[in-house]
Amino acid sequence: MSTLEIILTFTASLMTLLLGGGGIVYHRQSKRSKTAEAFAAEVAALKASQEVWKEQIAFLNARVDDLQRIVLDQDTREHQLRDTVSVLEIKHAKNKSAINTAYGCCFCDTPAKCPVLIARTRNEDEYTAIIEKRAKV
Fold first, then answer.
1. CB of 115 within 8 A of CB of 102?
2. Residues 26, 27, 31, 37: is their CA dihedral positive or negative?
3. What is the pLDDT of residues 2-13, one digit of tens each?
4. Is the pTM higher than 0.85?
5. If I label 59, which of 77, 84, 113, 137 is the partner at 20 to 30 A Cα–Cα?
């Protein structure tokens, strides 16, 4: 082997080593840039899904508010109906008592003197007054 061959072999080896090492460095940088791009794409996708979730949460919050309002309205209506039922139960009990006393009635020669009709008229007037009072409120 001549010195020229040794120098050429050494130079070729050195160039291969340097250029091959550059390829490895380039590969690592390429891999880092691809990883950064993938991460950026993931962040963009997460931001988009976050916006979708925000819209859905806002919609569902509005829906919950509507349903709460409906429940409160229904609850108010239920209380009104319960009050009406209690008034009707009292009215029914009074009418039943008046009718039961009518069986022992000996004053029924005219309808104006009948205690059943008198008591029933009085109960009807009380019930009408209660309804009118509630309608004003």
1. yes
2. positive
3. 776 777 676 767
4. no
5. 77
